[in-house]
Write a structure and sequence with these properties.
Belongs to the methyltransferase superfamily. LaeA methyltransferase family. Keywords: Methyltransferase, Transferase. This protein has 2 domains: about 130 residues, Vaccinia Virus protein VP39 (Rossmann fold, 3-Layer(aba) Sandwich), CATH 3.40.50; about 100 residues, no CATH class. It is about 40% helix and about 15% strand. The strands form 2 sheets. The chain has a 5-stranded parallel sheet. A 3-stranded antiparallel sheet has the order 6-8-7. Helix 2 links the parallel strand 1 and strand 2. Helix 3 crosses helix 5, helix 4 packs across helix 6 and helix 6 runs antiparallel to helix 7. The radius of gyration is 19 Å and the shape is globular. The relative contact order is 0.14.
């Protein structure tokens, strides 16, 4: 769902924005279900595409130029120096423990003139027509997520801040371009109903995971937790009109 949402919000269902032309080797980090890599394999049938994740949950039938590997991007990268033409990371905010180290590893493994692209979702929400929304249910959930992530030492604010650009330049990348696109949550925006519905489903899952974590740490009874989650999901859906974020 991340895959479809990002493509829609980046406009024209583009798989990537970097000016990549006939790459020999592509690395898709944190591939998840692998659908981005599969689409790239069809677009570039002569390209060798490596897709990595900490769990291989992809379908058994994959394109012949796809090579899945069980790998943790938070460990030291072992790809050959100067071997990669395009490195793609999507939806990994909160998963990468040290972005500086990740970008440094990527720089070392990329050939001169290669590209790296990072696409992610902001978990800071706004609401059209409301500049403060301090008591908004979406704003409160955003604050909870940030507090939990911060306590775990995970960086989430890589979209709305300039941290990503800073870390890339520190690693050695000279030309760094940021592009922010507004993403609409739910079906209230007429031109983005499909992607908005997908994004709402994604965000409800993310919020539920973080709330579940806090309830588990606090020892909240399971029955009480389930009732709370149901009420929270209903309230978030009820108040999704006008909500937006960024990718």
């Amino acid at each position: 769902m991340f895959h479809l949402t990002f493509e829609e919000e980046l406009r024209q269902r583009r798989l990537f924005i970097a000016p990549v032309r006939n790459p020999a080797i592509i690395l898709n980090v944190g591939t998840g279900t692998g659908y981005w890599a599969f689409d790239m394999a069809r677009m570039f049938p002569q390209t060798r595409i490596y897709m990595t994740d900490i769990a291989l949950i992809q379908p058994d039938l994959i394109p012949v130029n796809i090579h899945p590997y069980l790998d943790d991007a938070n460990e030291k990268w072992t790809w050959a120096v100067g071997s990669l033409d395009f490195v793609h990371l999507r939806g990994l905010a909160g998963c990468i423990t040290n972005w500086r180290a990740t970008f440094a590893d990527a720089w070392e493994c990329m050939r001169p003139g290669a590209y790296i692209e990072v696409c992610d979702l902001s978990l800071r929400f706004g609401r059209q027509g409301d500049e403060t929304h301090s008591d908004d249910i979406w704003a409160r959930c955003s604050q909870l997520i940030r507090e939990v992530a911060s306590s775990a030492g995970r960086a989430l604010a890589i979209v709305e801040s300039d941290q990503c650009e800073l870390w890339m330049r520190e690693a050695g990348f000279e030309i760094v371009t940021q592009r922010r696109v507004q993403a609409y949550v739910g079906t209230w925006h007429r031109a983005h109903k499909e992607s908005g519905a997908l994004l709402l489903k994604i965000l409800l899952g993310i919020i539920e995971d973080y709330v579940t974590y806090t309830h588990y740490k606090a020892g909240r009874p399971l029955k009480e937790h389930r009732a709370y989650i149901k009420g929270l999901r209903d309230k978030l859906m009820e108040h999704s009109a006008g909500v937006f974020t960024e990718v």
